[in-house]
Each structure stands twice: as structure tokens, then as C-alpha cells.
């Protein structure tokens, strides 16, 4: 997407171009303090492990030293992942929305799933498309792809081993609905209202990695397109996230 950081308002009397309009994306007032806290946690973990290596380490091939080195690796990885997500969120909020393009829907969704599988945890989880809308659809591919990849990655992380993540592609109120379902435990009713808040992690997510930014990124992406992302959980359907994507059917 082309940069839109130096945004200038439309001349008086002329309508604002939606692609140039200021994004309607909400961030909490304490966003920066939460970001600082999240990064400090990773830095503290790396500092503690390097201190132990420097002052008490001996043979780096020993089991104890290997644990400390692994702690450094995880802390640095957490820092990199958090900064990458912050950069993604910044791009969503500041850059010009790309024009909608026609995509062959099922192969396009399969390519997004492949990206999520490549980056995600090595979990024994299968991803399958259950309900399809074959053919070509016109939609904005970058932001929709980002949101969908987040939802698939979350389903891979929180789905039980040897389970299946289902994708359903069907007509929606904005044109297209993409539902991602897994058999994870979901969140409590008291937590559901905070799911899309940056840095929020439910009780079931703690200790599984991540900074609690993925769903905030998905929501910001959909809001820029005037779409929507919804959450539901039930005993029979499991955890379901639905993207309501502005799109229209195209002739092949």
C-alpha cells in the first residue's frame, strides 16, 4: 500500500476521498504505556538470562546454560514479533487503502491459510474450507488478507491438537462473510467485550505467546474498509470469528 502519512485535507467544498480520509480506528488512551510494559517484559527476561550466563555460566553446552540461552532467544523473538505487529497496526492506520481487485476467492483464501501455517506454531491442527463460494470476487486484498491471516493464526494457536479449523465462505451483509471456527475454549463472557482491545489476553491465552495485538489488528483492518469482525462461542460450534468483508461477485 502506498504511504499516506502526509495527509492533506480535501479543498473546501470538495468531498473527501474515502481512500485519503482519516482512518476511524480506536486505540485505548493507555496504548503507549501498555506497549512499554509489554516490551519491558521481554527486555527483563533477556537481561536476566544474559546476567546468569555472564556471572554463573560455564559450559554453554550444558543443560542449564542451554535453558538460559533459550530464554534469551524467546525474549528476542517476542520483541521482534511485538514490534512487527506494531508496525502492521501503524501501516493499517496511516497508509492509503488499496483499490479493490478481483480475486479467485477459494485459491486466494488458500494462499492466506498457507501463509498462516508457515508462520504459526507447529501444532497438529488441520485447516479446511467447508463452505465455499467459488468464482471471482472484487475486494481489497491487503487488509482483508491481514485480518484473515490473524484469525487463522489464532485458531491454530488455540485449537486443540489433532483438531480441525474450518473456514466457511458465504454471502454476507457487506457482500462476503468469511468465518473461521475452531474447537478452542474461547473466552469468558466477562472477557468477550475486551477481545479486540490492544494487548488484552484472556485467561486461556496467557502463557501461549503473543502480545494480544492480533485481534486489534484484524479489527483495525476491517474498520478501515467499513467492514466488521465478530466473535461468538458455543458448545456445538466452538469459537467462531467472522469477517464481514465489503465485496461483490465478479464474472470470471
Which key phrases capture this entry?
single chain, 252 residues, alpha+beta, Heat Shock Protein 90, 2 domains, 5-stranded mixed β-sheet, 3-stranded antiparallel β-sheet, 8 strands
Number of strands: 8
Structure annotation, total helices? 6
Name of the CATH superfamily of the largest domain = Histidine kinase-like ATPase, C-terminal domain
What's the CATH architecture name of the largest domain? 2-Layer Sandwich
Order of helices and strands: HHEHEEHEEHHEEE
Determine the oligomeric state from the structure: single chain
Strand content range: 15-25%
Summed up, the domain count is 2
Indicate the low-confidence ranges by residue numbers: 1-23
Distance from first to last alpha carbon: 25 Å
Q: Main β-sheet: number of strands, strand sense, barrel status?
A: 5 strands, mixed
Under CATH, the topology of the largest domain is which?
Heat Shock Protein 90
**Whole-angstrom Rg:** 20 Å
Amino acid at each position: 500500500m502506498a504511504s499516506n502519512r502526509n495527509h492533506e485535507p480535501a479543498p473546501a467544498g470538495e468531498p473527501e476521498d474515502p481512500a485519503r480520509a482519516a482512518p476511524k480506528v480506536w486505540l485505548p488512551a493507555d496504548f503507549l504505556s501498555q506497549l512499554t510494559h509489554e516490551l519491558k517484559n521481554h527486555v527483563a527476561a533477556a537481561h536476566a538470562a544474559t546476567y546468569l550466563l555472564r556471572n554463573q555460566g560455564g559450559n554453554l553446552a550444558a543443560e542449564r546454560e542451554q535453558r538460559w540461552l533459550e530464554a534469551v532467544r524467546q525474549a528476542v523473538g517476542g520483541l521482534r514479533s511485538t514490534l512487527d505487529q506494531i508496525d502492521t497496526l501503524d501501516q493499517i492506520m496511516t497508509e492509503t487503502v488499496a483499490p479493490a481487485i478481483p480475486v479467485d476467492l477459494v485459491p486466494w483464501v488458500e494462499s492466506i491459510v498457507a501463509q498462516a501455517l508457515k508462520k504459526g506454531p507447529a501444532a497438529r491442527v488441520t485447516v479446511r474450507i467447508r463452505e465455499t463460494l467459488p468464482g471471482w470476487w472484487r475486494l481489497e486484498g491487503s487488509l482483508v488478507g491481514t485480518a484473515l491471516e490473524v484469525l487463522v493464526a489464532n485458531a491454530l494457536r488455540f485449537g486443540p491438537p489433532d483438531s480441525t479449523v474450518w473456514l466457511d465462505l458465504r454471502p454476507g451483509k457487506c457482500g462476503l462473510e468469511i468465518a473461521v471456527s475452531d474447537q478452542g475454549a474461547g473466552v469468558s463472557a466477562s472477557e468477550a467485550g475486551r477481545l479486540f482491545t490492544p494487548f488484552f489476553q484472556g485467561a486461556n491465552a496467557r502463557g501461549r505467546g503473543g502480545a494480544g495485538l492480533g485481534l486489534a489488528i484484524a479489527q483495525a483492518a476491517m474498520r478501515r474498509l467499513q467492514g466488521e469482525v465478530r466473535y461468538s462461542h458455543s458448545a456445538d460450534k466452538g469459537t467462531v470469528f467472522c469477517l464481514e468483508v465489503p465485496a461483490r461477485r465478479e464474472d470470471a
